[in-house]
Design brief:
By secondary structure, this protein is an alpha/beta fold. The protein is built from 12 helices and 18 strands. The chain has helices at residues 42-52, 78-86, 91-94, 124-138, 209-215, 247-253, 257-267, 269-275, 322-344, 352-378, 381-393, 397-404; strands spanning 32-38, 58-62, 75-76, 97-105, 110-121, 141-144, 148-153, 162-166, 169-178, 198-206, 218-224, 227-233, 239-246, 279-280, 286-289, 305-307, 413-416, 422-425. The strands form 3 sheets. Strands 3, 4, 5, 10, 11, 12, 13, 14 and 15 form a 9-stranded mixed beta sheet that branches. Strands 1, 2, 6, 7, 8, 9 and 16 form a 7-stranded mixed beta sheet that branches. It binds flavin-adenine dinucleotide (FAD). Flavin-adenine dinucleotide is lined by residues 38-44, 61-64, 70-75, 80, 147-148, 179-183, 185, 200, 242, 244, 288, 291, 309-310, 317, 320-324, 326.
Length: 426
Amino acid sequence: MMEAKSPEQGTGSTKSRTSKKSSGAPDKKSFVHDVVIVGGGLAGGVAAIHLASRGVSTLILEKEKGPHHKVCGEFISAEGAELLKEIGIDLLALGAEPVRRFRLHGPHKSCEAKLPTTALGYSRLALDEKILELAEKAGAEVRRGVVVKEKTEGLESPGGHIVLATSQGEVHARRLILATGKSEFRSYQSRTGRDSSYVGFKMHLKLKPSAARQAREHCDLFVFDHGYGGLAPIENGLFNFCFLIEKAALKKIGTDWDALASFIAKHNWEASRYLDGAIPQFKQFAVVSGIPYGFLRNEPAENGVFCVGDQMAVIPSLTGDGMSIAAMTGRAAAMAIIDFRARDGHLRSPTLSAVYQKEMRARLKPQIESGYQLHLLFKRPQLCDWATYVVNAFPKITDLLFLRTRARTGAPRLKVDSAGAKRLEA
Ligand SMILES: Cc1cc2nc3c(=O)[nH]c(=O)nc-3n(C[C@H](O)[C@H](O)[C@H](O)COP(=O)(O)OP(=O)(O)OC[C@H]3O[C@@H](n4cnc5c(N)ncnc54)[C@H](O)[C@@H]3O)c2cc1C
C-alpha cells in the first residue's frame, strides 16, 4: 500500500514539467521529485521499486527507448535472485535456468565443482524489462529515451534542489540516485579501475544438442590467451556466451563472430567443443569497453547523491556477482532514504549519502579485492591449468573462493543514536 505524502514530498503527480531557465530555483510550474534515478538498469530499477512502493515520488530516466541487450554473463547468484524475489521477481517461474555446477577450463586442463548455492541464468533483455514494468506498477514514473547530460545544480544551490539537464529539458529533485552502470556521467566524478584494458562481448547461442546437454546446469569458464569468458544457460533453451578480450589484441584478431569464436576455440580446447556448430542469435555482439574493474567509490559522497550498482563498485565479471551488488546497493540507497524520511519527515540531510557510501564501501571492499585477485589469476592461462589440479584435488576450495566474492546482501537500515549520529546497520 502507498503511504500518504506530505506537501514537501511532492504531489505524487507524474506530470512533471520542466523549467526553461537553468537557475537552481525551479519555476512555479516545475515539479520537484523526491528522488530522480538516472539509469533504468538493475540498480536503478530495484531502488525505484523500493522507493515508489513506499510512496516516495520517484522518476527513472533511462536513455534507451526500449528493451536492449547488455553485456553481461547473465549468471544471477543466489543472493541476487533472493533480492529480486523480494521485489516480486520469481526468476524460476519466469523460465530462468538453474546453474548448479561450475567448470574451469584452462587452455589444456579442466576442473569441475558444485556451486555452494544454486545460481540462475536469465537474460538481461527480459530481466531489465520486468524490473521497469514492476517499478511503474509500484508508482514510479519511467521515462525512456531520455539522456541525462549532466547535473547542473546541487542541493546547496539557491533553489535547494538538484537540477539535471536532460535531452528533454530540466528535471528537479531532492535526491539523485546515480545508476548509469558502465557509462560515465558527465559532471560527476569519473571512475578509475585497476584494470580497464578489456573489451566485453556478449552473444546468445543455440548450441548443438550434444553440447547443450553437456552445458546444461553448468557455468563453464574458459581461460585463453588475451582473455577469458563464460557460458551459461538462459531461458528458451539458449546459452549466453560472454567474454573479455584485451583491447590491444583485438586489432589482430578482428571483432566479428567468426574471427572471435575461432580465436577462442583455437586457444581453449574445451571452448572449441561448445562453439563448434553453435548458432549466434544476434547479427552483432553486444559490446562494452573500458570497464573499470576493481573500482570502489572512495571520494566523499556529494550531498544528496547516491551512487549505486557499477557506479558504486565494479567487480571483475568472472565472479558473476555484479548484479547482486547492483540490487544490494539499489536497495540500500532506497532504504536509507526511506528510513530517513520516516524519521524526520523530509528528505534533506547533508550526511545521509555519505553514511550510505561509507557503509557500502566497507561492505564491498573485501569482495572487490578477492574478485580482483581472481581476475589476476585469469590473466595467466598457464597458471589456470595448474589451478585446475588444485581444484580437482580439493574441490571445496571453490566454496571458499565463491563465498569470498559474494556481496553481503542483508538489508542495511538507518540508525540514529541519541547524539544524532547516523549509520547504516545490517
Ligand atoms: C563482460 C561482463 C560480464 C558480466 N557478467 C555478469 C554475470 O554473469 N553476473 C553478474 O551478476 N554480473 C555480471 N556482470 C556485471 C553486471 O552486468 C553489472 O554489474 C550490472 O549490470 C550493473 O547494474 P547497473 O544497474 O549498475 O548498470 P546497468 O545495468 O548497466 O544499467 C545502467 C543503465 O543506465 C542507463 N544510462 C546510462 N547512462 C545514462 C544517461 N546518461 N542517461 C540515462 N540513462 C543512462 C543505461 O542505458 C542502462 O540501462 C558482467 C559485466 C560484464 C562487463
